[in-house]
Design goal:
By secondary structure, the protein is mainly β. 5% of the residues lie in helices and 47% in strands. This is FG-GAP repeat protein.
Length: 417
Amino acid sequence: MRKYARVIILIISLGSIITGCGNVVNTTSLIQAPMLENVEENKINKELKEILTPGSEFLVPKNSQEKQSIFIDDVDKDGKNEAFVLYRNMKENRQVHLLMLKEENEKWNKVLDVATNFNILDYFTLKDLDGDGKKEVILGTSVSDSELSKQLFIYELNGKELVNKVNRTYEWIDISDYNEDNRPDVIIIDGEIGKSKIAEMFNYENNQLKSRTFVGLNPEGVIENVVSGKLADGNNALFIDSALGAHSMLTEIVTCDKGRFIKIGDENDGILFKAYPLYSRDINNDGIIDVGGMYIPKGFEDAAMAEIPFIYTYSDYKEDGTHEIVEERYTDSVQHFYITIYSKWHGKVTIQKLDQGVRLIDNESQDNLFEVKWISKSSYGENKTKLGETKDIIFYDDIKEEQPISKENFHLLKDEF
């Protein structure tokens, strides 16, 4: 099964850890070095050395914005901080543990250690879900990376006990204010492949998740990437990229309209439904999530799928389903580079393949807009214009005159990330 592409799983040993609530500390320094900027973290470190068995691994949730292993906060608002430590005991079937420490008299003491009976840490956050000033402890786990169904736990801290209030399945979760009522909404995607699947919005009230609205999703989709962000008209939305069949992908956009969840856009418009995976992202860093699409360039309509040099597009969507292309590019995933195309040529470019190279051609005039070639470093000559290089390959052009698409539009994929 394809893995979530926008989320990186970091499983870090005792010599390497990210920690703190809003503070990122060098991992090696946290465990090994006595010199730390934060005295509080230094005290936690000393306690962890005594509590955790050698070889234990700290865990970072793979589907959370907070990429850390230690969360420090006054959850129950008693004036004393708690520290929640996420780790795996390698001698205990690699199951995920949630360790809680309590700060008392300038000392961190172990309060409890919850063994989850699950091996993968998917989600973790501390959030006041019901507006009472105290924060709930939200934990998501799964049996394995290949398991679509995960388990969500919502705990409340009562003295020295974490009381489990919610225990339910989910495939994906996000906590954010979708309906802009100044309180967090719990968004859960759940269902069964081939039968039904929904995106549902909950509020946490009276120790329970209360359903507010939901919308159906394509039941055949296997979620690969989910992004919470803005539409072009400023509304909050969920962008769900799911694999369909052997290689296709469908993007479903969910937003809240007058208190109810709706899906926007035409799923057959060639942008939302695409031949190969292309994930939603903020391509131009303007705060708006762009939906990836692709089209077949002129001359390749009858080519085998594997031979088609698709042109990629990234489009902004509005709540009414209208959309606008904000970037178009030719991407060579084998050679790991891409060329951005000026807006005046959007939808008007085709590809000419060369031996060790490629050209972008104007469909109407047949003019050469851009050319790039590649060669091993050992064979490269200085009379060529270098566009970029990797460990073994140099990308260049040997055209003397300026090309219509600037050489600045050539990018290595590694530079983008």
